[in-house]
Amino acid sequence: MIGLFRRASFGDEVSGVHDGLLHLRNGTPRSIISTSSLSFEGLATEQQLQSVQAFRDLLHAQSGPLQVYIRVRRVLAGDASEPDVHTIPERQTYLGAMTRSFINAHLQDTPVFQREIFIVLAPIDSGQRLLHTLLFRFSQSREQPRFVATDLGAPLQKRAQSLLEQLRRIGVKGQILDDTGLSRLLGELYGDRRKGEAEGGAMHHAFTHRTDSLELGGRHYTSFVVDRYPGEEIEPGWLLPLLAFKGELHVGIHILPLETDRMLTLLHHRIRDLRADDMASLESGAVDPATIGTLPDALSMHHALARNEEKAFAVSFYLTIGADNPLELRSQAESLRASCRRMMLHPVQPIFEMRQGLLSSWPLGTDLLAREQILHTSAVVTMMPWLQEDLADAAGHYWGYNKETGGLCIFDPFDEERFTNANIAVLAQSGAGKSYAAASVVLSGYTRGIGAILLDPEAEYGGMIRALGGTYFQLAAGSGHAINVLDPLLFTVDSDEPTDQLSDVLDLIGLMCGKLDEVERAQLETITRLVISNERTALLGDIWRELDVRQPGSRMSTILRRWVTGDLGRLFSAPTNVDLGAPIVGFNLRDLSEELIPPACLILANWLWTALRRDRRPRHLLIDEVGLLLEHEPIRRFLIRLARRIRKYGGSLILVSQNPGDFFETKDGAVLATNPSILLLGCQKRSEAVKLQRAFNLTERQVNYLETAERGDFLLVAGPNRVPVHVMAPPWMDELIVQSRGH
Which residues are CB-contacts of 687 (< 8 A; sequence separation ≥ 6)? Predict the structure, then answer.
């Protein structure tokens, strides 16, 4: 027989939100920090050890209770209908709406579950000085302290700010929820529609409380208490099956730091009892298998606590699942029990206490069931929750989907809090889809108002750029397009920063004439200064004419004459006749002969550098087949300078290459390869995959993934996270990219 209990309301436990704190009915505040996640399973061993140690330090630094709250829920799809082009006149906005429509259609067809992790900080409740657990209900003597938990009285705001730094050391980004964020979170939990309200009183909701479930707002919940943990040594990451749960799941792990003196007293009594049991067993000749190894473990823990190597915590572990109806709830409960069996957890249901179980699972920092177990630091550290990352932000570039979780990868490469720079390297062998992936990044940025400049050695992006209303120029002898390297409108910056125009011109002439010795460079510098000082805009041919007057028949004059006359002169010594102000600009370098590529690319590089410094705004600079340029020292030197400083000017450098060996053969190339904060590593031969393993500290599993990756599959390395993704572009992107390449 099922007992039915009805209450008039649900939500009295919360009194309101103000001053960035959640206030409970009893007046105690809570500070809630939302966190990003971390692909812990994909980290190299050294990085895993660093993250685990940082989490250990976080636990030891706590001066009061905290709760780890994990929420797994399906990502709801929005409107999947295609937008009407007539109602959205701006093409950029229209294409962004097309991308959102594609994402929503994917969410409708494929269940995608999102994992969110929060940390809840709370002060010690002065009305409860002792834990509820039976372990603390032994005889109270004078030598035993009255308080079992530590609380140094630090304000919650101060503790929260300190926690942000500790999370950063783990590799996780944290954000303290403000009034709006707290109200939104409460609205999502209680089903309240007043998500935007920062202020509000208690939220009252009718609910039905059954023996083994609870119904709230048409949603059914059932809770579990973990009363037995794995009975063997485990490593951090064992909670991963919970994060992969396919359904609504709320996980509440309450961690209360305990006073070391209290725990030493408890262990002292325990060790005394165990020694007495051992002596009794020896006298009787019987050995209790349950006590084998218990005494050494207790002694070891006593020594670790005495040396302050470990600390003790009271830990409560609660699980709550939600479903639309009782039948689905029973099915989800069986799935959760199966996951717990694989994890060697023993969950039990708190019969007649489902309301308390639900509230203990939610991020309220209240342990209403008080089913604590005493664990030391090494055990609590294994519960580190930041194990799997989707890189799913509310706004950002769309990259594809996570092959492990099915979740979408949407994040902003310009996020300065997450990444040291916005640079991206796409490394994959021919046919792996690297140019396709790079183009999708540019198009995703375009929908967000981020411009782009593309150096296109294979003429693969022309149709795409023209379709977006950009400008696409063909640089080749006889093409009619020219960029004047001495044009002050293109190569000077109106700022306090010094300009390198003189040095850039000398480097260009050095590429054209072969390496200049010190005397030739000094002579050429004098002539260039004289030509630049004229009021009219000079051309490269003016430098040659002055050089021919001073040094007729010299090596420099003879060679430079070829570059400033004829078809080459119309390319390198003519006034600028291209519009470089479009949102997207591309340069077709396919028809440049091999000897023309270095000087042409150097001119473009110098213009790019000036444009970035003059107009500081987010934009992508894509250089395809960059390996062809690395053998030329001036260009290599420029790329290194650009990679190191482009973040200062709001830019993002995208380097695409089919041969990682081009980077690692030289010291400068290795700097370019390791500088980007974001990597897209595609299919590789074994020899190339091993080079990437050494450079980026990849695991053997990740190396095997690169060797067997199919077209469009990449290992996305974004900061500390390593996520296997498949680049799945929306149809409009796919059409632009494929048609542009002539497929």
Answer: none
- Alpha-carbon span 41 to 61, nearest angstrom: 25
Cα dihedral 403, 404, 410, 414 sign:
negative
* 43-73 pLDDT, tens digit each: 888 889 999 999 999 999 988 899 999 999 9
AA identity, residue 198 = A
pLDDT exceeds cutoff 80 at 198: no
Supply φ then ψ for residue 727, to 5 degrees: -75, 110
Instruction: Give percent of the chain above pLDDT 70.
Output: 83
pLDDT(734) > 50: yes
d(CA 20, CA 40): 30
Distance CA 204, CA 478 (A): 77
Q: Is the pLDDT of residue 5 over 60?
A: no
Round to whole Å and give the CA distance between 30 and 16: 11
How many Å apart are CA 27 and CA 49, to the nearest integer?
40
CB 318 within 8 A of CB 373: no
- How many Cβ atoms are within 10 Å of 618's Cβ, its own excluded? 17
**Which residue type does 274 have?**
L
Render pLDDT for 646-681 as a digit per residue (tens, 0 to 9).
Answer: 888 888 999 998 888 777 777 777 888 888 999 999
The Cα–Cα gap between 442 and 444 comes to: 5
Q: What are phi and psi of 499, to 5 degrees?
A: -95, 145
Q: What is the chain's mean pLDDT, rounded?
A: 82
Which tokens in the block code for residue 491?
A: 């190569």
Instruction: Look at residue 79 and tell me whether its pLDDT is greater than 80.
Output: yes
The band of 112, judged by pLDDT with boundaries at 50, 70 and 90, is: confident
Question: What is the three-class DSSP state of 678?
Answer: strand
- In this structure, are residues 223 and 216 in contact, taking their beta carbons and an 8 Å threshold? no
Whole-number pLDDT of residue 145: 44
Q: Across residues 408-433, what is the average pLDDT?
A: 89
Give residue 527's identity as a one-letter amino acid code: I
User: Using an 8 Å Cβ cutoff, are 699 and 39 in contact?
Assistant: no
Separation CA 74–CA 246 (nearest Å): 8
- Measured CA to CA, the distance from residue 607 to residue 491 in angstroms comes to 6
**Mean pLDDT for the stretch of residues 693-714:** 91
Helix (H, G, I), strand (E, B) or coil at 17: strand
Three-state secondary-structure class, residue 661: helix
pLDDT at 431: 86
Residue 375, SS3?
strand
Q: What is the pTM of this model?
A: 0.79
Distance CA 21, CA 7 (A): 28
- % the chain with pLDDT above 90: 28
Closest CA to 690 of 680, 678, 702: 702
Secondary structure (DSSP) of 133-193: SGGG-S---TTS-S--B------HHHHHHHHHHHHHHHT--EEE--HHHHHHHHHHHHT-S
Q: In 615-653, which residue ranges form alpha helices assigned H by DSSP?
A: 633-645
Helices 156-170 and 45-60: crossing angle in degrees, nearest 10, is 170
Contacts of 324 (CB under 8 A, 6+ apart): 218, 219, 220
Q: What angle do CA 251, 383, 149 make, to 5 degrees?
A: 85
First-to-last C-alpha distance (Å) of the chain:
68
Lowest mean pLDDT among 315-319, 581-585, 733-737: 581-585
Query: CA-CA distances (angstroms) from residue 696 to 485, 600, 646, 669?
Result: 38, 32, 22, 14
- List residues bridging with 411 in a β-sheet: 397
What Cα–Cα distance (Å) separates residue 525 from each residue in 20, 192, 522? Answer: 62, 73, 5
Burial 404-427 (b: 16+ CB within 10 A, else e): bbebbbbbbbbeeebbebbbbbbb
The pLDDT of residue 726: 94
Distances (CA, A) of 54 to 59, 118, 240, 718: 9, 17, 19, 20
Phi, psi values for residue 141, rounded to 5°: -115, 170
Nearest-angstrom CA–CA distance, 331 and 151 = 42
